[in-house]
Design brief:
Blueprint lengths: L1 E6 L6 E4 L2 E4 L8 E5 L12 E13 L2 E8 L2 E8 L10 E6 L4 E4 L1
Antiparallel strand pairs: 1-2, 1-4, 2-3, 4-9, 5-6, 5-8, 6-7
Length: 106
């Protein structure tokens, strides 16, 4: 998923996005595009950032299950192994984003 990111106004190494504040390893000075990799998210909430979301839909895709969720009014789609137990539509979840799940495109 692609989002616009603006450097945090408090000077910290973070970007403000439509889904909330995302930490960065380097300070940024200009608007950037942020890619949230759908295959790198974690369902346990662990990572450098976490998103509180509500599950909208689960779709079985063979070896993967796509999980559609909404956070702060933004729809996101994540891919998880099909053998993984995932929450049902309507349930609240905490999606963890490890550092490699968040990429900055200048």
């Amino acid at each position: 998923y692609l989002l616009e990111g603006t450097p945090a106004s408090d000077g910290t190494r973070a970007l403000e996005t439509a889904v909330g504040r995302l930490p960065m390893t380097e300070p940024l000075r200009a608007k950037v595009t942020v890619l949230i990799r759908p295959d790198s998210a974690r369902i346990d909430g662990e990572g450098t950032a976490a998103l509180e979301a509500t599950v909208v839909q689960k779709t079985f895709r063979g070896g993967l299950t796509q999980l559609d969720a909404v956070t702060t009014g933004v729809s996101l789609r994540f891919d998880f192994p099909s053998q993984m137990s995932l929450p049902r539509p309507g349930e609240k979840i905490r999606i963890g984003l490890p550092a490699d799940a968040i990429q900055v495109i200048p």
